[in-house]
Structure formats: C-alpha cells, structure tokens
Amino acid sequence: MIEIVEDMKCVEKVVRIKVPYKMASRAFHHQDSVIKVGNHYIGNGSLTAIAGPCCIESREQLFAIAAAVKSAGAQILRGGAFKPRTSPYSFQGMGEEGLKLLREAGDKYGMPVCTELMSTEDFDLVDTYTDIIQIGARNMQNYSLLKKVGRTQKPVLLKRGMSATIEEFLMSAEYIMASGNPNVILCERGIRTFESYTRNTLDLAVVCAIKELSHLPIIIDPSHATGRWKMIEPISKAAVAVGCDGLMIEVHHEPDKAFSDGPQSLKPEKFARLMTNIQRVHSACEETLITESVAKIHAAI
Ligand code: PEP
Ligand code: MN
C-alpha cells in the first residue's frame, strides 16, 4: 500500500506515523504550533505568564489582583468561576457572576482571560466570557468534554491529569484536535506520587518529552504542582530553564483570606519579583543557545 502511494506523481514523501496521537505528534507537524490569544502568541519563543487568583471571590479581590499582575507583566488573566473542589461543602465558585467579572477585569486591564470549564452543560456560558477554555486535571479524560471543546476554535488549556502518563496526556490533546480544534496548549501541574510534602510532584522532564513528541506549546503550573508559595519562584526558574513556553501562577493580594489555595498563592510583590527573575533566566538560556549555534557554525567552517 505504501509503495503504491509513494509511486504516485503528486506524492513527495510518505511518513509512517507510529504514535497513536497523530495530530498532536511532531512527526505529523514539524514546526512548533503557535497559539494566538487576543494579540498575544503562546509558543513563539517568548514566555507567557498566565496569572490571577485560584478563584474569583469578589469584584474588589479580582480587580486588585488583575491590576497587580498586569503591572508585573502578565499577559493573560486567570480566575476560576466553576471550581473542582475535593469537598462538596467547599466554595464552588461564583458561576456566571464570576465569569462576568473576569471578562470585565480582562477588558479593563487589556488581558485575555482563561477560566475552567467543568461540564459540557456550561460550555455556552463559559465560551461567551472567556478567551481560553481551561480543562482541569480532573477532567483530562472526560472525553465528552474534550470533544465539546474540540468543536470550537477557541484555544484550550489542557491540564495533565494527576495520574496520567505523557502518552495519555497527548491522547487527550488528540481528542480535542481530532474533533477540529488545533489550538491546544498543554499544561503540566504535577502528578500524584507517594510524596506528600509537596501537593503534587512536578514532572519537569515532561517539557523535554513534549518538545520531542509534539509541536504543541507546554506551560508549567508551579502553584498546583508544589502547593507552597515559597517554592513558586525557584521552580518557575527551573521550568523556564528547561524550555517551557510559559507559566500559570496563582496570585492573591490577601492569601490568608483566600477562599481556595491561599498557601500556594503569591502576593503581588513576590509575583513581580518572579516576573523579573524568570525573564533573566529566559534571556540567559537564549544567549546560551545563540552561543552554541555560533560555536557550531565556527566548527563547521
Ligand atoms: C486550577 O488551575 O484552578 C485548578 C483547579 O487546577 P488543576 O485542575 O490542575 O487542579
Ligand atoms: Mn487553585
């Protein structure tokens, strides 16, 4: 069969794709995918910072945090309105009221917004207000939800399930792409291991694996990966050094009063310091790449 196709005049080359995720695979698409969100590009070699509270709690809270992350240089505002909480008695999010506030804050500060969609029933509602649809770790293998977001062209931020292998992660991206939406941004947020000091165990090797296996951009969420605000800056620097396309970071102006994830939320001043320092790491890595390329050219001539 391959020979027949290869012999056809219009065929230059036949590439056999051995992996089960064809559309997400680099074998199928060599160039890095760059995802456009508003006027911002994710995966073009620059660093993307998605920042904001874990959940939207009130207008005052969201606008204070949005102003702070914007002035620190974040390009995208995050905030949950539908929250996947372990306990049904915990705060479940503000729902549509929260989505409206998120849209308003994003428009006021000139930032596209990102929020989680937990159920196919809420698709139209969430789609009306958001620029990026987040699929949370708990829903990474919710196939009807993946197919639903695959039937739009809106960028989807797909978080790795807490016990998903890299292949399962890419298969979930494949579900979205095979349904018609190529605009997938992968997000590693730590996986569950025997370790309990940190909230999850951050698999940073996933960045190298994804860069080899796929053309999709990958961002790191050190907040859910560690659960501890003190670790956010050092882990973010490591993630940037290893080559991620961006970071998703939880920020709260009053972490002690946060309705969820206060212990892993950075105060605005700490977030601003992180933004400066990750840029330094990013520039240093770019310089190393340039030096290496120049050295290779010199070696070749
Ligand atoms: C979140 O980003 O708000 C969140 C709930 O993350 P995860 O799905 O990774 O737990
Ligand atoms: Mn959170």
Task: Supply the CATH class.
Answer: Alpha Beta
Q: Provide the residue-averaged pLDDT.
A: 96
What molecules are bound to this protein?
phosphoenolpyruvate, manganese (II) ion
**Strand ordering within the main sheet:** 3-4-5-6-7-8-9-10
List strands and helices in order, with pairings:
Layout: H1 2-7, E1 35-37, E2 40-42, E3 48-52, H2 59-71, E4 76-78, H3 96-109, E5 113-116, H4 123-129, E6 132-135, H5 143-150, E7 156-159, H6 166-178, E8 184-188, H7 205-213, E9 218-220, H8 222-226, H9 229-242, E10 246-250, H10 268-300
Parallel strand pairs: 3-4, 3-10, 4-5, 5-6, 6-7, 7-8, 8-9, 9-10
Antiparallel strand pairs: 1-2
Helix pairs in contact: 2-3, 2-10, 5-6, 9-10
Bound molecules: phosphoenolpyruvate and manganese (II) ion (MN).
What does this structure look like?
With 301 residues, the chain is α/β, with parallel strands linked by helices. Helices cover 41% and strands 13% of the residues. The chain has a single domain (17-82, 90-300), classed as Aldolase class I (TIM Barrel, Alpha-Beta Barrel). It has helices at 2-7, 59-71, 96-109, 123-129, 143-150, 166-178, 205-213, 222-226, 229-242, 268-300, and strands at 35-37, 40-42, 48-52, 76-78, 113-116, 132-135, 156-159, 184-188, 218-220, 246-250. The strands form two sheets. The chain has an eight-stranded parallel β-barrel with strand order 3-4-5-6-7-8-9-10, surrounded by seven helices. A two-stranded antiparallel ribbon has the order 1-2. Helix 9 runs parallel beside helix 10. The longest helix has 33 residues, at 268-300. The chain binds phosphoenolpyruvate (PEP) and manganese (II) ion.
